[in-house]
């Protein structure tokens, strides 16, 4: 678009500068002066060519022929230094769009790639014609070195979607410098059948229609083109940018300017014709088709207008293609809430809508509505009103199905202007009820960028409403979410919210739990800022997997103003996932794994016969390589359970094929006469004897206990315990307390008392705090050692040691290093390993404790720093 000059003109009728302006664009290529030199050069960012000796005299070029566009700040050229806001605009946008025309010298196929750089992720949509289904998408540098490959799994026919996550900065620089190439690899062309460089085009931001032009006739290869089209905002004019390759021949042959003829056809009959001049160095041009008739606008949205480009007076090479609405991997969706209504309401209702725009301009919609207090009377797709009583309705949708909460239908009368506004995110969905006829719910229809989440295309989103919270919340916010389980039983989720106030946006959390009011596990999915969140959970609890399979799971959204729940939705994912030795097939069917590794079916009630599960090593779903085999059962990575050898007082965890079992350490009870129950590990006070604290077992009194996610167990109100936090195990230096009034778990660090002795010791290796030996002690020094007038003392590993005191350091997680002695001298700690020389090690009791054999290993003591000691401890 370097040769297109656009200007914003203020409207003549607007009062005080209000109202939309008018954008007028024109092609300035014909205004370029005629050059006398034989080899003119094209300078970056310029439309017109210049002679080599005129490079320093840039003022010879007519005013307005320099098109300035933002580039990478590290590679800024002189063309964007004149625009001080170019860098700010690039940083403010957060992403940059690029496009590529893909052709090949051995193929007649033509493809178009559009990529969007969002932070460090490159999202791409590639459409192709006359090409077999590609196997991979390949990104290379200009020399052909492969930077990234992505398997080509088409989401739709002729469309490939993907994401390059964590794109290296070097590749990002190549992209911004237009040096990154993309290719489509097919089984017959392993080196790439079509390819091309990604270039920046400002027209991508306004593109709503597109066309892919292929060669008419089989005599040539490597010829094709693409067109980016959009409608004017103020009049029925069609602006377009056309890029092509192979139509003009080699760059070093033929004249500098080549005349081209462009025709717009309908069923073979010409409607419009344009003449343009272009060069082999920049094969492309921009033009405007002014004042389209109503019939031409209808043909445009129906995809019946054909664009034909040929070289005037030259070889009969013609490329052509039909103009259709822009195709991409984005999803058209809308979250409907009361906060966005024309008159905001706060009823707790919510709506969720998904749209699909077809090639003929028809719009398929699926709308879900929950929580309304009265009957839905109107569902309309409309524009943003200039005033409250001026609403332009584009489509009246069908009402909700009888007795249901969903409406499904087709809008066929959008027209070209409506499709353009839809793809420009300028339409809204409004739902009116009997109580609120002007609108109880309203949502902005936007395109959600492709993120790799396949659930968007497989199922409808789960609506999230305040009316579904127990007890109901009259919230003006709403949301919807996509959730799915992959072949490894990992949970993929994506949450979108709307209508949250500014004070609540920073404290939003998403939880997955069972039925409301029932005890069970609860998983924090993510705490996030803003209105969007997505992620993956790889170690979902077995009970939550059962709830997902049975349709009793819930997604709960909490905010600062509603910590017990602002929005809720019910989730159902039919799956066959193994978790904790169970294969979840359907509701009421459970298949525990037998000790010999084979599964035995045991249906809990009448129902269809469950299929026989596959044995270990048989064909079927691939087993996760990180699973653990313990006591005859397979446990997935992250699973936690009570072992058979000690089901009450031990807890085991699977961490990447390694089983770690920790004993449950009971803290001192808070009453003088605790009672030891037969079904509990730790003694409890008599008034709490009936409470259970088995890991994973339900709490008989949901309102009087807490669920701790660390060891996944219910605790009675007022219970105190040392937590078990995988993969670290038992944490004896922390104590957790269950607050029964709120159901919250409060954990705090154990405060070790200040000791009066000079050399405290640990009675047990697993103790958190040291204590003084029996019969020893010195007067306690209660003052701050940093402010004392005597010797300074030493600070080592978070503890203070007086001057001249010696001790054995403790290096987590290995414990006390008894063969290393540290001493405080002049305020600096010095650590030495015990001498294992022949004269000192043998016969002194050190041979079995510190020294491996009675040979002179170290003749002198060595002073080491703490990092060196930790390395030695890890290697030993």
UniProtKB/TrEMBL annotation:
<dbReference type="GO" id="GO:0048731">
    <property type="term" value="P:system development"/>
</dbReference>
<dbReference type="InterPro" id="IPR001007">
    <property type="entry name" value="VWF_dom"/>
</dbReference>
<dbReference type="InterPro" id="IPR010895">
    <property type="entry name" value="CHRD"/>
</dbReference>
<keyword id="KW-0325">Glycoprotein</keyword>
<feature type="domain" description="CHRD">
    <location>
        <begin position="329"/>
        <end position="450"/>
    </location>
</feature>
<protein>
    <recommendedName>
        <fullName>Chordin</fullName>
    </recommendedName>
</protein>
<feature type="domain" description="CHRD">
    <location>
        <begin position="94"/>
        <end position="203"/>
    </location>
</feature>
<dbReference type="GO" id="GO:0030514">
    <property type="term" value="P:negative regulation of BMP signaling pathway"/>
</dbReference>
<keyword id="KW-0964">Secreted</keyword>
<dbReference type="InterPro" id="IPR016353">
    <property type="entry name" value="Chordin"/>
</dbReference>
<dbReference type="InterPro" id="IPR052278">
    <property type="entry name" value="Chordin-like_regulators"/>
</dbReference>
<comment type="similarity">
    <text>Belongs to the chordin family.</text>
</comment>
<feature type="region of interest" description="Disordered">
    <location>
        <begin position="593"/>
        <end position="638"/>
    </location>
</feature>
<keyword id="KW-0677">Repeat</keyword>
<dbReference type="GO" id="GO:0005615">
    <property type="term" value="C:extracellular space"/>
</dbReference>
<feature type="domain" description="VWFC">
    <location>
        <begin position="626"/>
        <end position="686"/>
    </location>
</feature>
<feature type="region of interest" description="Disordered">
    <location>
        <begin position="70"/>
        <end position="91"/>
    </location>
</feature>
<feature type="domain" description="CHRD">
    <location>
        <begin position="456"/>
        <end position="576"/>
    </location>
</feature>
<keyword id="KW-0217">Developmental protein</keyword>
<dbReference type="GO" id="GO:0009953">
    <property type="term" value="P:dorsal/ventral pattern formation"/>
</dbReference>
<feature type="domain" description="CHRD">
    <location>
        <begin position="205"/>
        <end position="328"/>
    </location>
</feature>
<dbReference type="Pfam" id="PF00093">
    <property type="entry name" value="VWC"/>
</dbReference>
<dbReference type="Pfam" id="PF07452">
    <property type="entry name" value="CHRD"/>
</dbReference>
<dbReference type="GO" id="GO:0036122">
    <property type="term" value="F:BMP binding"/>
</dbReference>
